[in-house]
């Protein structure tokens, strides 16, 4: 097994796969009422409206013996374009996201930011580059990517100092320090007060940290605490591997990642 495949698989172990409601797929947009009943599938990316001009994309990967594992990213609508946070698992799924933004929103994806170098966040980089989309990741993620069998983003974000924040297309991008991985970053939108925690933030009231093979177990809790401190007005917290929640999702990760546990 190639290393990057192993990383991708282990990354999402123990992640719950809740059935999403209020979601629609690009194959069944005409049946909006019925899509919540659609079976999750590796073939279909789901789109869930989180806030005005903000969507969550959800894609699945079949991992035996656990079955379908979901991963989330975001799509922010802007005037005449969209901004993407994280790819789906692979190029085919990510091409669906690109097409959906163009055809359903009428706002082609112009740029993307990627929250760390694992395949659930950067596995579809090829599809973005095929469309000429400007891709961004931290310099650390771009350095890790080839070592993990992933394509790096085209652009480096200089985020290698803990607690550093930068403006990226009107969104706040922050490096909270190492947690799930050394290179994990988070994205905050002041308008919708949504913080995308990626794999640093565990879903719901999960008691598991999931894959920790690349983790900074000593700092993880502090890194999550840095996110809560930096964005005290956050009202929606989106983790990679489960449903969005409120600030209690941050509190839960701070607690379960505490090295004293
Ligand atoms: Zn990961």
Provide a brief overview of the structure.
By secondary structure, the chain is an alpha/beta fold. The chain is 23% helix and 26% strand. Strand 11 (186-189) and strand 12 (194-198) form a beta hairpin.
Descriptive overview:
This protein has about 260 residues and is of the alpha/beta class. It has one domain: Ribonuclease Z/Hydroxyacylglutathione hydrolase-like (Metallo-beta-lactamase, Chain A, 4-Layer Sandwich), CATH 3.60.15. About 25% of the residues lie in helices and about 25% in strands. It contains 7 helices and 13 strands. The strands form 2 sheets. An 8-stranded mixed beta sheet has the order 1-2-3-4-5-6-7-8. Strands 9-10-11-12-13 form a 5-stranded mixed beta sheet, with no helix packed on it. Helix 6 (about 220-230) runs antiparallel to helix 7 (about 250-255). About 50% of the residues are buried. Residues about 1-35 have low confidence and may be disordered. The structure holds zinc ion (ZN).
């Amino acid at each position: 097994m190639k290393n990057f495949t192993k990383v991708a698989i282990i990354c999402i172990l123990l992640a719950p796969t809740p059935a999403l409601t209020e979601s629609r797929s690009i194959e069944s947009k005409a049946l909006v009422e019925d899509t919540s009943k659609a079976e999750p599938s590796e073939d279909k990316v789901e789109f869930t409206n989180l806030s005005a001009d903000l969507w969550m994309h959800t894609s699945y990967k079949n991992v035996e013996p656990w079955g379908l594992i979901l991963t989330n990213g975001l799509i922010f609508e802007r005037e005449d374009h969209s901004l993407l946070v994280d790819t789906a698992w692979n190029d085919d799924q990510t091409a669906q996201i690109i097409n959906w933004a163009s055809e359903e929103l009428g706002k082609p994806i112009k740029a993307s930011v990627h929250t760390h170098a694992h395949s659930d966040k950067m596995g579809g980089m090829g599809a973005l580059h095929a469309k000429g989309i400007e891709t961004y990741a931290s310099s650390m993620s771009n350095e890790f990517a080839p070592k993990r069998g992933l394509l790096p983003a085209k652009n480096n974000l200089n985020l290698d100092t803990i607690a550093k924040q930068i403006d990226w297309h009107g969104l706040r991008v922050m490096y909270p320090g190492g947690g799930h991985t050394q290179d994990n970053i988070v994205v905050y939108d002041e308008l919708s007060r949504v913080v995308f925690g990626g794999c640093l933030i565990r879903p719901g009231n999960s008691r598991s940290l999931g894959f920790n093979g690349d983790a900074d177990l000593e700092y993880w809790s502090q890194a999550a605490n840095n996110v809560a401190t930096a964005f005290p007005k956050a009202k929606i917290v989106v983790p990679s591997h489960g449903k969005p929640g409120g600030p209690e999702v941050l509190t839960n990760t701070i607690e379960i990642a505490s090295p004293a546990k």
